[in-house]
């Protein structure tokens, strides 16, 4: 027992604690993987060593270093960036035809103002809309832009004038047989419309102006306003056949335009050397009105049965129209050669007088409504017999 009591006071060597191998117990860094510690065989601790270890406070465990491979959170967007981001995502892309032709988009942006100032929204049967997806509207704008060689201001002015003219004259009503008809004595046989089917290219629309059929030039062309109404009625019938309001594809600004017609002017038996002044006035007014109100609707214009020496007439016409229209003029001295200007399958459908094998235009072609107008014969003045007194005098 005494020995046991003295045991704590005896100077005993401190228990040897094996120094840990720092190369093995060192905490692994974030980018390195700590190797597994090698097994160490230690002697069983004595009671004193156990007591000492129990009395020693437990060493705090070192905090694990954060892994360097952790991705840092993205900084929160600022208020301005957060507001701008949805706008970029929701912004609709421009139609290809606006990107290809910037002037077209600019004319489209001006459309509401143009329509408001003109007080009219219809063009060639198309209700113009400020809708970039409305193909008929876009095609109308392309025609006015092409007619002015891409000049935005000129196209805007012409579109405004054309809308005002349609508002004042109502050409759709002029072509409506239930609303308007024209003097058969003045305009009978003077103009026709034919439609020819073509495979893969749509219908070919042709208007025929037979000036050789005029019986009395002073009557037909004397009233210029009446002649313009009749001529506009014929044009509107052809425009209706183009079906611009049913267009499903946008015209290629630099390509072919499928919404155009052919015009034939026949001058058989018409004297150019003694041009009637009424004819000159009506011709000039027609060119002025049609070049403004019907741009880019003409594909080709053929002047048939015209003497070759009458080149001055075409030079005069080119003064009043733009170069794009003038290049479409084709004079032909012999009307029978007209069919040769078209594919064989189509040429056969033309009247015989123009090189085809079909009947004359009077037999099947359309024309504005005509009516017989009875002219009042001038009344004879009734002279009273003088009285007896007057006789005597």
Fold topology:
Layout: H1 2-6, H2 22-25, H3 47-55, H4 79-90, H5 96-100, H6 102-118, E1 122-123, E2 126-127, H7 135-147, H8 152-169, H9 171-174, E3 182-183, H10 184-187, E4 191-196, E5 204-210, H11 217-222, H12 224-242, E6 261-266, H13 277-293, E7 298-304, H14 311-320, H15 323-326, E8 329-332, H16 344-347, H17 361-364, E9 370-371, H18 388-392
Parallel strand pairs: 3-9, 5-6, 6-7, 7-8
Antiparallel strand pairs: 1-2, 4-5
Cross-sheet strand order for the largest sheet:
4-5-6-7-8
State the CATH superfamily name of one domain: CRAL-TRIO lipid binding domain
Query: Helix/strand-derived class?
Result: alpha/beta
What is the molecular shape?
globular
Radius of gyration: 48 Å
What is the CATH class of one domain?
Alpha Beta
Mean pLDDT: 79
The counted number of beta strands is 9
The assigned CATH architecture of one domain is 3-Layer(aba) Sandwich
Percentage of residues in helical conformation:
40-55%
């Amino acid at each position: 027992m005494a020995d046991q009591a003295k045991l704590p006071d005896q100077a005993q060597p401190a228990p040897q604690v094996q120094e840990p191998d720092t190369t093995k117990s060192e905490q692994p860094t974030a980018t390195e993987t700590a190797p597994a510690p090698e097994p160490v065989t230690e002697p069983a601790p004595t009671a004193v060593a156990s007591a000492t270890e129990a009395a020693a406070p437990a060493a705090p465990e070192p905090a694990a270093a954060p892994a360097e491979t952790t991705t840092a959170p993205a900084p929160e967007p600022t208020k301005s960036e957060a507001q701008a981001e949805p706008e970029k995502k929701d912004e609709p892309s421009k139609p290809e035809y606006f990107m290809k032709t910037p002037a077209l988009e600019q004319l489209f942006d001006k459309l509401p103002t143009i329509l408001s100032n003109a007080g009219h929204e219809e063009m060639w049967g198309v209700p113009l809309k400020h809708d970039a997806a409305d193909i008929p509207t876009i095609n109308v704008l392309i025609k006015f832009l092409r007619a002015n060689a891409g000049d935005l201001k000129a196209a805007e002015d012409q579109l405004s004038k054309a809308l005002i003219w349609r508002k004042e004259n109502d050409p759709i009503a002029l072509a409506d047989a239930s609303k308007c008809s024209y003097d058969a004595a003045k305009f009978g046989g003077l103009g026709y419309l034919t439609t020819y089917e073509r495979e893969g290219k749509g219908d070919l629309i042709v208007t025929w102006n037979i000036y050789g059929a005029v019986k009395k030039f002073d009557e037909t062309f004397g009233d210029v306003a009446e002649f313009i109404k009749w001529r506009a009625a014929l044009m509107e019938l052809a425009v209706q056949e183009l079906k611009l309001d049913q267009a499903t594809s946008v015209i290629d600004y630099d390509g072919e335009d499928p919404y155009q017609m052919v015009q034939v002017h026949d001058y058989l038996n018409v004297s150019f050397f003694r041009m009637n002044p009424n004819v000159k006035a009506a011709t000039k007014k027609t060119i002025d009105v049609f070049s403004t109100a019907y741009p880019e609707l003409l594909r080709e214009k053929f002047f048939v049965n015209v003497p070759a020496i009458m080149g001055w007439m075409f030079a005069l016409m080119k003064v009043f129209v733009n170069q794009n229209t003038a290049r479409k003029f084709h004079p032909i001295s012999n009307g029978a050669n007209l069919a040769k200007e078209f594919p064989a399958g189509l040429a056969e459908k033309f009247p015989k007088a123009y090189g085809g094998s079909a009947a004359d235009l009077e037999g099947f072609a359309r024309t504005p409504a005509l009516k017989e107008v009875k002219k009042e014969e001038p009344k004879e003045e009734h002279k009273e017999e003088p009285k007896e007194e007057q006789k005597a005098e």
